[in-house]
C-alpha cells in the first residue's frame, strides 16, 4: 500500500503515512487519548488511559493493521483497521487537525477496501462527521449507543467508490 510499500510520502513538512511500529505505541496512544478528550468531552470513556495505552501497545500495533501519520517524525494521527480492513479507530492530535494528516490516513483504508468501507462515529463528534462526509462517506444509520462500550449515540457511515 502506498508509495515505497508502507509509506505515503508528501512534501517536506506534510504528513507521511506509514505502518506503526512498536516504538510508535506510546505516541499512538497519546494521539488517541488527546483526540477523544478534545472531540468527545461529554461521552463516557469505557477505558482508562492506562487500558487504552496497553491495548495500543499489546493488541493494535502488533496484531492489527495500525497506521500513523507523522510530520518530521512526530506522530500526529493514527488509524487502526479491523480484520476486514474497516477503520475501527481514526484519531488526530487536536493541535494538528486541518493540516492533511486525516486526509492521508483515509487513503490506506480506501485502497485496502476499494469496493467500499463502513465505519461508526459518535453523533456528538461533529468534526469527525464533517471529515467523513468531506471524504465521500454517507450516513446510513443511527443508534442510541446501547451496543457500544461508551453508550454514546452513534452514526454508521459508508463509503462507496463513485458514490454508489
From TrEMBL:
Basic and acidic residues biased stretches: 88-102, 144-164
Domain of life: Bacteria
Enzyme Commission code: 2.3.-.-
The entry's keywords: Acyltransferase, Transferase
Keyword Acyltransferase: yes
Stretch list, region Disordered: 86-108, 143-164
GO molecular function terms attached to this record: acyltransferase activity
N-acetyltransferase domain boundaries: 15-162
A matching Pfam family: Acetyltransf_7
InterPro entries according to UniProt: Acyl_CoA_acyltransferase, Bact_Acetyltransf, GNAT_dom
PANTHER family (alphabetical): AMINOALKYLPHOSPHONATE N-ACETYLTRANSFERASE-RELATED-RELATED
Name assigned to this protein: GNAT family N-acetyltransferase
Organism: Streptomyces desertarenae
Amino acid at each position: 500500500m502506498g508509495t515505497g510499500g508502507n509509506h505515503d510520502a508528501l512534501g517536506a513538512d506534510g504528513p507521511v503515512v506509514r505502518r506503526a511500529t512498536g516504538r510508535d505505541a506510546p505516541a499512538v496512544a497519546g494521539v488517541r487519548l488527546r483526540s477523544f478528550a478534545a472531540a468527545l468531552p461529554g461521552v463516557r470513556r469505557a477505558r482508562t488511559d492506562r487500558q487504552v495505552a496497553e491495548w495500543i501497545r499489546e493488541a493494535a500495533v502488533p496484531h492489527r493493521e495500525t497506521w500513523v501519520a507523522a510530520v518530521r517524525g512526530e506522530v500526529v494521527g493514527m488509524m487502526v483497521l479491523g480484520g476486514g480492513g474497516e477503520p475501527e479507530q481514526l484519531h488526530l492530535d487536536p493541535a494538528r487537525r486541518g493540516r492533511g494528516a486525516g486526509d492521508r490516513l483515509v487513503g490506506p483504508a480506501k485502497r485496502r477496501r476499494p469496493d467500499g468501507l463502513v465505519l461508526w462515529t459518535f453523533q456528538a463528534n461533529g468534526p469527525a462527521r464533517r471529515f467523513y462526509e468531506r471524504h465521500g462517506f454517507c450516513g446510513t444509520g443511527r443508534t442510541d449507543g446501547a451496543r457500544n462500550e461508551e453508550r454514546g449515540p452513534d452514526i454508521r457511515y459508508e463509503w462507496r467508490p463513485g458514490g454508489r
